[in-house]
Write a structure and sequence with these properties.
CATH topology of the largest domain in chain A: MetI-like fold
Helix content of chain A: over 70%
Oligomer: heterodimer
Shape of chain A: flat
Order of helices and strands of chain A: HHHHHHHHHHHH
Largest sheet of chain A: none
Structural class of chain B: alpha/beta
CATH class of the largest domain in chain A: Mainly Alpha
Radius of gyration of chain B: 19 Å
CATH superfamily of one domain in chain B: P-loop containing nucleotide triphosphate hydrolases
Distance between the termini of chain A: 24 Å
Number of strands of chain B: 10
Number of domains of chain A: 2
Number of strands of chain A: 0
Strand content of chain B: 15-25%
Chain lengths: ~325, ~280
């Protein structure tokens, strides 16, 4: 997404400079040459041609473009590079699939996807459900695990950030447990909950809780001393300090934590479900691997990517809404 | 003042108008990574009720530390501070602070920023009374038109006005101002100084202002406390400004007494306690 933005901004800035340069040089030449009575016909023609060449692909600045044209131009500028990139990707994919006969090419995958998505919500028993059910099952696990992580992580982050003692108390545990792969927690979950589904949710919880704790705590610890002095001078209650000063200030940090968390949670769910089985996009990938249905695995990769992107976009929008600036 | 007298003052709890705010042998040492830093030593000062005091000195002389001590944001390493006969241990609503960088909460409107103070101090009153107080405070500083604006939508001078309104809304006995106009341009500053003078006259509150603007100090104060350079800064001299109120900036410019006082402060700062260029 970042690279897309970057390329978009590059394209936005580069040609516009050229437009200005071209227009000014053409105008300057016209000013210089047209009023001089001594200039020969050839010269005049030359200037006209030059002006025309300079102007042709770009309308004169005096003639305002119609809004529709501007909109279409802008749309093309932003969309074209993306389309180009995707085409390149599909091209490379096609090349590789020609070299390696086991890997299905884009067309074959597309056909499989069309069949797959024509009936996303069929249900032929626990081991054969439509892709829609699988996605929903994964989303449900992620939202449960993520929601619990938010319920625990955000308040804990506030406490750690606010009280030095709590910070020192939790710091060693957090730094010890945070680098552990979330999947390492799966056996513990299975042992404690004695069922696959809660264990998967537990793994999501563990993976999503750290970024929320840490980002919230960092936000709280960064509250400017000035604001805290205001709180002291106004003799605000702890509740007012939290709701009127800490929470609004920490919100952007918190939203960063939430976004990181949902990203990690969605990454981990595929792996967790591969191990636990049942219904879900991760298990579906594993199932299709056992069936040697490689097209479906590729489709699953795209689905995971798209859903992850949508989750991220959704949270970015929410974060924007909460920003006070 | 001996210990017996002090305890008497504490017992009676009565405000001594001559020594309304009092600093006794105040010493402040900060512990830093490079070891202890002795910022203030032997600071003794009595402020009358209704008096306006300016604390002036070179930067780093501990002016703001004195103010923060009176505010109760800092606790002295040794010595005592009293306000209205009671020892200052924590910040209290009778001592409001106007911060140098206004310190408004950017996510609240001007109204909400002031209301935060009103709610806390006048929690016993009805909602309508509290709202009326907030509006009155904003009106006092001439900001009735900007109540619903956020701090980042108004100018620096207006932000500082909101800061003053927030402090005044608490109806403090002592108004503490920490370089309140330091970040403003000269014209805005002059306007706000005049306004502050008018407000202080009206409210009758005691004022303590930290500044490094000589004209501001002479114009606004009844007394100017000049501090020596740190570390271990202390009060060098106290200059009484005996100019009648209301003071008019333009008239004073040609007033011999005003100019004399002004040069006295300048002499203190640049002859007797000149600071080497950092």
């Amino acid at each position: 997404m970042n690279t897309m933005r970057l390329s978009k901004s590059l394209i936005d800035t580069l040609p516009r400079k050229k437009v200005v340069a071209n227009a000014t040089t053409a105008a300057a030449e016209n000013v210089h040459k047209e009023p001089s009575a001594t200039s020969t016909e050839a010269e005049l023609v030359e200037t006209e041609v030059k002006a025309k060449v300079a102007d042709k692909p770009l309308p004169k600045p005096t003639e305002p473009k119609s809004k529709l044209v501007v909109n279409i131009e802008q749309l093309l500028k932003s969309v074209l590079p993306a389309i180009f990139g995707l085409l390149l990707f599909v091209g490379i994919w096609t090349l590789i699939s020609h070299q390696s006969p086991n890997l299905p090419g884009p067309m074959k995958t597309w056909d499989a996807a069309v069949t797959l998505f024509s009936d996303p919500f069929y249900d032929n028993g626990p081991n054969d459900k439509g892709i829609g059910w699988n996605i929903l099952a994964s989303l449900q696990r992620v939202s449960l695990g993520f929601g619990m992580a938010a319920l625990v992580g955000i308040p804990l982050g506030f406490i750690i950030g606010r009280f030095e003692f709590a910070n020192k108390m939790c710091a060693p545990i957090i730094s010890l447990l945070r680098p552990v792969s979330p999947l390492a927690w799966l056996p513990i979950g299975l042992l404690v909950f004695k069922a696959a589904n809660p264990a998967a949710i537990w793994v999501i919880f563990i993976s999503a809780v750290w970024p929320m704790i840490i980002n919230t705590a960092v936000g709280v610890s960064k509250v400017p001393q000035d604001y805290m002095n205001v709180a002291k001078v106004l003799n605000l209650s702890e509740w007012k300090i939290v709701t009127k000063i800490l929470f609004p200030f920490v919100l952007p940090y918190m939203m960063t934590g939430v976004r990181l968390s949902i990203g990690v949670a969605w990454l981990v769910i595929v792996a967790a479900e591969m191990l636990t089985g049942g219904v879900g996009i991760g298990f579906w990938v594993w199932d299709e691997w056992n069936n040697l249905n490689v097209e479906h695995i590729i489709i699953a990769i795209f689905i995971v990517g798209i859903v992850g992107l949508l989750l991220e976009l959704m949270l970015t929008q929410i974060a924007k809404r909460f920003s006070y600036e | 003042m001996s210990i017996i007298e002090k305890s008497n003052a504490e017992k009676s709890g009565k405000a001594n108008t001559e020594k309304y705010v009092q600093l006794e042998n105040v010493e402040m040492t900060f512990s830093t990574k490079k070891g202890d830093f002795n910022a203030l030593k032997d600071v003794n000062l009595s402020i009358k009720q209704g008096e306006f005091i300016s604390i002036i000195g070179h930067s780093g002389c501990g002016k703001s530390t004195v103010l923060n001590l009176i505010a109760g944001l800092l606790v002295p390493s040794s010595g005592f501070l009293f306000c209205a006969g009671r020892e200052i241990a924590t910040p209290g609503p009778e001592r409001a602070v106007v911060f140098q960088n206004h310190s408004l909460l950017p996510w609240l409107t001007c109204f909400e920023n002031v209301h935060l103070a009103v709610e806390r101090v006048f929690g016993g009153e009805t909602k309508a009374q509290q709202v009326a107080r907030t509006y009155a405070a904003l009106e006092l500083v001439g900001l009735s038109h900007a109540v619903e604006k956020r701090p980042n939508e108004i100018s620096g001078g207006m932000k500082q006005r909101v800061g003053i309104a927030r402090a005044l809304a608490m109806e403090p006995k002592v108004l503490l101002l920490d370089e309140p106009f330091g970040a403003l341009d000269a014209l805005t500053r002059a306007g706000l100084q005049d306004e502050l003078m008018r407000i202080m006259q009206k409210s009758g509150a005691t004022g303590v202002m930290v500044t490094h603007d000589v004209d501001e100090a002479v114009l606004l104060s009844d007394r100017i406390v000049m501090m020596t350079n740190g570390p271990s800064a202390s009060i060098g001299e106290i200059l009484t400004v005996d100019l009648p109120y209301p003071r008019k900036r333009l008239e004073l410019a040609e007033n011999a007494e005003y100019n004399h006082l002004r040069s006295e402060v300048l002499k203190f700062l640049y002859e007797r306690h000149a600071k080497k260029a950092a």
